[in-house]
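Protein fold
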Amino acid sequence: MTEQRPSAYAWFLGGIGSWALAAGLQQVVFTWLIVGELRVSANRVGVAQMCQTLPMLVFLLFGGLLADRVELRRLLASLHVLAAAAAATLAVLVITGGMHFEVLIVYALGWGTVQAFASPPRDAMISHLGIRDMLRAITGMTLVQFSATALGSRLAGLGAGFGNAAPLVAQSAVLLAGLAAVSRLPRVAPQPRVGSDAGGIAAIREGLALVRASRDLFPVSVLVAGDGLFFMGPFAVLVPLLVRDVYGGGISDLSWVMMTLPLGTIGGSLAVLLRGGVRRKGLAFLVALLGISGCLLVIAARPPFWGLVATIFAWGVFHSFFFNTSRTLFQQAAPPTLRARVLSVHSLCFFGMAPLSHLGAGFLAGAVGPARACAVAGIAMIAATGWALAATPVRRVT
C-alpha cells in the first residue's frame, strides 16, 4: 500500500517549486553565457540549447521505466543531489575562468540527462497522493512550477550583478534545499512486474503501444510533439537572439522576457482553477496551440520591446491551457501499472522534439533571421492543428 499523508500534496509542491526555481535560474544564466558572454553564432546557440534537451530524447522512456521499478522518493532525492553538484561545478569553472563553449556543452548534456530521469517520477508521484480532482491538482502543480520558474528567471538577472557564477551557486543551494520537501513525500513501492514487464525494452514498448492504440491519446501525442518541435526552439533560441540582435538587450532584459512566459502560464492556470476546470479539454488544447502560433506571428513582426514582452505573456497563457489539458488527458488514460511509462511518452513527445527544434531554429535563424524563423514555426503549427481539427476526434475529448 502507498503511504497516505494529509500534507503529501503540499510537500510535493515544495519539491516541484525548488526544482522549478533552480530551472528558472538555469534557463537564464545558461542562455546568457552562450548568447551574451561567448556571443556565439545562431547555429551554435541552437547546438548548445539542443544539448540541454537531447538527453530527454534518449533517456525519457528509460526514466519512465526506472520510475516504475524503483522507490520514487529515493529516486527524486538522488536527482536533486546530482543536479546541485552539476550547477556547483559549473559555478567553479565560471569563477576560475575555465568556462568555454565545450564546457557548456558538457554541462548541458549532464543537466538534460538529470531532467530526463526526473520528469517521469514527478509525474508518477502525483498519482500516489490521494488526490481526487486530478485536473485541479495538475493545475495547482503547474501554478507552483511556473511561479517558481518565473521567480528563478528574474533572480538570475538580478543575481548576475554579482557575477555570472552567483545564479549557479543559488541554483545548487535551492536544489539541495528541496531535499527537505522531497524527504517528506510518501514512500511509493515499485510497481509489480506483469506480462512483458520483465524485459526493459519490451516494457517501454508497452507504454508506447498503449498511446499508439488510443484514438484519443495518439493525436494528442502527435500535437504535443508538434508543440515541442515548433515552439521550444523559438523560445529558447530565436527569442534570445532577438533580444540580443534586434532589441540590443542584456541579461536583465533576457530575464524579463524569460520570466514573462511562466507569468502568463500562472495567469492561465489561475483562470482554470477559478472557473473550476475545463469541460472540453480537447477543444481547449487545440485552441491553445492556435493561440501560441498567433503569438509567434506577432513576434515575427518585430513589435517594440514592450510588445514582445506582452506577446510572450499571452504565449504563457495559451501554454497553460495546452500544458494542463494535455497532461490531464494522459493522466486519465494511464493504467496504474504503466502510469509512469505512459506519462513519459507525453514528456518524450514534448521534450524529445526539443533537440531538433533547437538545432533547426538556430540554423533557420542563420539562414533567414530569427524573426522570419518565428513566422515559419507559427505557420507550421497552424497547419498541424488544422489537421487535428479536421481529421481527428481530439476536439470532442472531455
Notes: The chain has one domain: 8-182+200-396. The radius of gyration is 20 Å. The chain has a mean pLDDT of 85. Residues 8-37 form the longest helix (30 residues).
